[in-house]
Amino acid sequence: MSLIGRMIGSVLRPILERQAKGRSVQQFVELLERSGEEVAKRLIDAPDTPHNREVANHIVGIERWGQRRLRVALGEPPLLDSYRGYRLYEGVELEALRSAFIDTRRSTVDLARELSFTDPKYQTKVRH
Questions:
Q1: Burial level of 96, CB count in 10 A (0-12/13-18/19+)?
Q2: What is the mean pLDDT of residues 60-79?
Q3: The pLDDT of residue 114
Q4: Which of 3, 76, 92, 111 is the most buried (most CB within 10 A)?
Q5: 8 Å CB contact between 86 and 60
Q6: Minimum mean pLDDT among 36-40, 74-78, 119-123: which range?
């Protein structure tokens, strides 16, 4: 990880951990559903511009990459890969990115539900 990535992580990690403390997996499922609806609405209302396509593709790629890390907590072997491999191809239209986001978020919610019904290895550290 780059120096900037480590610096950002050292600032964000305590904030995110503080926000997560005391919340149940079910509460995270609900947050994922609500925020997914908000993002999907914003993508529906957004014009198809290069900037909006880049932002949407980044969101989809990061979420898919994050799903792979969640699967490690469910027992899959870890991978050290880049989020770029989870993005859609360059030049994809915003409509396809909207659909990809909705499908991706649905999969994230399903993974979160699966975590709530299993006994994941909460002590497992997943490398960034």
A1: middle
A2: 88
A3: 86
A4: 111
A5: yes
A6: 119-123
